[in-house]
UniProtKB/TrEMBL annotation:
It is a multi-pass membrane protein. It is found in: Cell inner membrane; Cell membrane. Keywords: Cell membrane, Membrane, Transmembrane, Transmembrane helix, Transport. Gene3D superfamilies: MetI-like. This is Phosphate transport system permease protein PstA. CDD domains: TM_PBP2. InterPro entries: MetI-like (IPR000515), MetI-like_sf (IPR035906), Phosphate_PstA (IPR005672). It comes from Halomonas kalidii.
Length: 522
């Protein structure tokens, strides 16, 4: 059946409903994929939108402030209206209430308002705080009270951010290099410079700890909050749509550029992004040459007999082995076997603390390369099998050696198939979690395994991975409800990372296919 027949809605006689069933299956698959992406984007990206904060007054006079999350009906209650229905509010204030969630019966609510003066603080400890700002104080003396407190707070937060940047730069650019110099031997000048840097660091800490906020919760309880623990502050009910959009963009950027906090339930995922991409790139570099060489041997060099067919069956069966089995193999052979031997040969002084005899980036990449090796072999061999024999015979007839024929004729024509195998390998490896838990992934590794110290790329270090970050946040967090939006956002990010890696390989495959021409049909 020709494509224009499908477009015009005509079916070739005798084919029956099967073309429509096939088209419906494709449409259903695309619909399910679209629904998944919409779910991840809505639940994940919506987390960064500044939600309005409600001030709820109950019939008994009690007050609370929080963000409305969802409503639910109590089981066994069939009456309509508000009877038997409850609303969940994220009230924050863990240090005052011991929790951040409150269920409120709708029939017990007397009034709901959205005052513009309600402030949300994002803090390093205890999570967010929701309440009113009464005053900003320095060394016990007020800097701003009442209406002047909010602009004073914004100005002080800007100054505090500059002090944090200076503190981080002092550690990174001065203290760590000087400490490395002193570790190699005595150095009087470096000792003096390090003492001055530490003194400046103490001055910065003292300056950052001078300010305090006086806050009040919705029910009238007061809290003195050190400003150094506050990362950001906003008044969501007073924000315009443009300000909300700007705050949403800043929240997404912080999620992409910062490291995790509060047991992975807050902060960003930059180390996990970097670790995932770096691991996939190393895996691709390791698996591609071995997979291509194995496919060339099976299709071009080896005698096509029972033994070769048995090897092909074994390779295809390896693609169905559970990934955790590869993780166990990597732990036993790569980590404890090869890594332990490397420690005994080259890092004996550091034992019993292992260097390569523990999980790390190198062993994770090798394990995933082994896991995806059958995929690359099968895809490359199928591409080699599609090349007509007269291409090989023509090259040999013109005087080319067998090696020149393979290198200049066969391999360029099979390059799109090789990249197809790499694309499939990347798609599988980027989402694997089970083997990584055994060979190097970490719950928290804020330092990426690349820095300015030789050898710059530290293959022995542990790393973070987006897939494991999703697993750990969803199942090992203390508050799953609070971490759920970050799980959705990280899952969406993982899908996008895999999509970008695959599109890069697809564009390269298209370029090679255009350059070397389409393969003739056989």
């Amino acid at each position: 059946m020709m494509p224009h027949d499908l477009i015009q809605g005509r079916l070739t006689r005798g084919e029956g409903p099967w073309p429509w069933l096939a088209a419906g299956s494709v449409a259903l698959s695309l619909l399910m994929l679209g629904a998944l992406l919409v779910l991840l984007a809505g639940r994940g990206l919506g987390h960064f939108w500044p939600a309005p904060v409600a001030l709820v007054e109950l019939e008994d006079g009690h007050r609370l402030a929080g963000e409305a999350v969802k409503e639910a009906r109590l089981p066994g209650v069939e009456d309509g209206g508000t009877r038997g229905r409850e609303r969940l509010y994220r009230t924050a204030n863990r240090d005052l209430d011991g929790g951040i969630w409150t269920w409120v019966a709708l029939e017990a609510i007397a009034d709901v308002s959205h005052p513009s003066e309600l402030v949300v603080l994002e803090r390093r400890r205890w999570g967010d705080f929701i309440g009113r700002l009464l005053a900003v104080e320095r060394d016990g003396r007020p800097l701003g009270r009442g209406d002047a407190a909010w602009p004073t707070l914004q100005a002080r937060l800007g100054e505090l951010e500059a002090l944090r940047d200076e503190q981080a730069g002092l550690r990174r650019e001065t203290i760590l290099p000087l400490a490395a110099r002193l570790a190699s031997g005595p150095d009087a000048e470096a000792s003096r410079d390090l003492a001055r840097a530490n003194a400046r660091l103490r001055e910065l800490r003292a300056e950052m700890g001078r300010d305090r906020l006086v806050m009040e919760s919705a029910d009238g309880r007061r809290l003195e909050q050190p400003l150094v623990e506050v990362l950001r502050a906003w008044r969501p009910n007073a924000m315009s749509p443009v300000e909300r959009l700007a705050a949403w963009g800043q929240g997404v950027w912080r999620f992409l550029a910062e490291g995790p906090r509060a047991a992975n339930t807050a902060g960003g995922v930059w180390p996990a992004i970097f670790g995932t991409v770096l691991m996939v790139l190393l895996m691709s570099v390791l698996v591609t040459p071995f997979g291509v060489l194995a496919a060339i041997y099976l299709n071009e060099v080896a005698h096509q007999g029972p033994l070769t067919r048995l090897v092909r069956i074994a390779v295809r069966n390896l693609a169905g082995v559970p990934s955790i089995v590869y993780g166990v193999f990597g732990l036993g052979v790569f980590v404890h076997g090869i890594g332990g031997a490397l420690d005994a040969w080259f890092f004996e002084d550091t034992l019993p603390s292992p260097t390569f005899g523990t999980g790390g980036l190198l062993w994770a990449s090798l394990t995933l390369a082994l896991l995806t090796l059958p995929v690359v072999i099968v895809a490359t061999e199928e591409g080699l099998a599609r090349i007509p024999d007269h291409q090989r015979e023509g090259a040999l007839a013109l005087g080319a050696t067998r090696l020149e024929m393979l290198a200049r004729v066969v391999l360029p024509m099979a390059a799109p198939a090789m990249l197809t195998g790499v694309i499939l390998a990347v798609a599988r490896a980027a989402g694997e979690v089970a083997p990584l838990m055994l060979v190097g992934v970490a719950k928290l590794a804020p330092q990426v395994p690349v820095d300015g110290d030789f050898p710059f790329l530290h293959l022995e270090r542990k790393f973070m991975h987006l897939g494991y970050h999703i697993f750990d946040t969803a199942f090992h967090g203390g508050d799953v409800q609070a971490a759920l939006p970050l799980v959705y956002a990280t899952a969406l990010l993982l899908v996008l990372v895999i999509l970008v890696l695959n599109l890069t390989a697809i564009f390269l495959r298209h370029y090679l296919k255009v350059r070397h021409g389409a393969l003739p049909r056989v």
